Structures are given as structure tokens and as C-alpha cells.
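Hi, here's the filled form for the chain we discussed.

Project: internal
Contact: R.S.
Residues: 313
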Amino acid sequence: MVVEKVCEIYNSISKLESLKPSKDVNMLFTQLVLTCMPSIPIDVTKLCKPVQDIRSKLIRLCGEAEGLLESHFSSLLGSFQSPLHHIHVFPYYSNYLNLSHLEFTLFIKHCTHVPTRVAFIGSGPLPLTSIVLASHHLRTTTFHNYDIDGSANSLAHHLVSSDPDLSQRMFFHTTDIMDVSTALKNYEVIFLAALVGMSKDEKAVFIDHLAKHMAPGALLMLRGAHGARAFLYPVIDPCDLRGFEVLSIFHPTDEVINSVVIARKYPVPVPSMDQDHGPILLPSKCSEIQAFNPLNHSNKIEETKAIEQEQLS
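And the returned structure, exactly as it came back:
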């Protein structure tokens, strides 16, 4: 039933002329999220080939819609003289506050000291995770945000450029992370965005690159999905975390969409990846965590229009 409904919604989304925020886009993605939200034990790897193809296309459509939503609000915020003073106009800012607090609580348990340098790969035009962590939790840490899209970085940089504190601690790099090697050793914690690597194979390539170049003992934070929610985001397979010790895996069972995986780069050399040695998986307890749901646009379109009209007046 869930799979049939997801396929039906996919057919409607695929016919849209644009995925920019609008009434139709908001309605369809809200339906998709609500359909995938129940904790139904679906193993997406065992679905038939046509449905797996639809899932792959849906994840990419979700990624495109999320990027357009963030660009829209980043541009809107950038029209203010002090963008960060108005960041609450983003409809899901409170979700980011909750998610960032919880992720901070999780990774700080595994740090021997407050990290001085953090990287976020796939930061996008609205780097709220970095902004919230830098503003509320890691107030002396520098954040290096990597994105392959120069226009996204330009929007993001504009948001913090007028802030006397964050403008000195947040840096933006326009590059393919696969072209970055030595610099990755400088970070104690690296976040990998959920939509960096939209398939299992693509994700594994990025993870292997990080395993090769991250500093021994550094933490890797990943966001993924589980069950029916895997129609929205890629699944993080612990077996793909070669070169890392998996510390915790969190699969939410409520309205939260994203799963969270925390892993540590092996502090000592490990057998070659060619020998098919997987990660060490420590016992972990599944925990409910509040995560940002970038696709749940319900009842937000009128608020968006009101804000835009206010800016134009």
C-alpha cells in the first residue's frame, strides 16, 4: 500500500514543470513525507527493479526540491541588512535548532576536547547546521563549508558576511570534495550531508575518499534514512564505512525523517579495503531524535508569500 502510494505521488511530482516552492510542490512533497513517515519495515533493497528505479529518481527530485527551497529562503534572508537577525523566517529553523543540539550532544561524547575545526560537506545555500552549531554550541570553532555549487556558496557567504563573529569563523570552499585531500586532515569532525551521494555506490565513493584522507581519530557524522523513509534519502549502510569504527546508529520512529550515523576514523592502520574488511560496529541503542524535514512544506506557502510581500513593500 505504501509503495503504491509513493509511486503514485512520484508520477505526479515527475509531471511538475518546476520544483520551486509553490502550492502544488508543497502539497505533493508533504503527501510524500506523510506517506513515508510511518515506521513500516520496508527493505528498499528487496523491492522490484521498477520500484527501485522510482526510488532513485525520487531521491534526486527531493534533493532538487530541497536545494530550490533553501536557495529561495537564502535569497529572501539576504535581502535584509542583517540576515542572521531574521533567520527565524525560515519555516524550519526550530527544527535545525533541535537537530543541531542533538547532533552536538552525540558527537561531543566522543570528543576529548571541543573541536577547533569542523567541516560540512554539501553545505548548500542555507548552511543552517554550521550557523546553529557556531552560534550556540561551538562558539570558538571555525567551520569550513564545502559545496560544488558556486552560486550556493555565494548565497551562504552573504548570510554571514555582515555578522562580526561568524564572518571570521565560517569559510566557504567551492570545489568537488573528491579533489580535496590534505586539507581533510585538518578537521576533528566532518559532516557529510544526506544528499551528497544520492545512491549507495555514490555515497560509498565519498566515504572511501574521506576514509583515505581524514585524520586518524576524527569523527564522521552522516545523515541517512531507514524503512519507508529511504524513498526520501539514501540509506547509510554500515558495511560501506570501511576505514571507520561505527560508534552509533540512530533510527527515529516518530516524525523524524533522518537517521544519524556517527563513526570514527581508525586511529591506527587497518587492513586494505581491497580485502573486504568492514567497519567495527559497536553495540548501540536506537534513539528517537528530532531531525530537520526539508520536504514537509505543509501550511508554509502563505507564510512565505507574506514574507515576500513584506520585503517588496
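Let me know if anything looks off before we file it.
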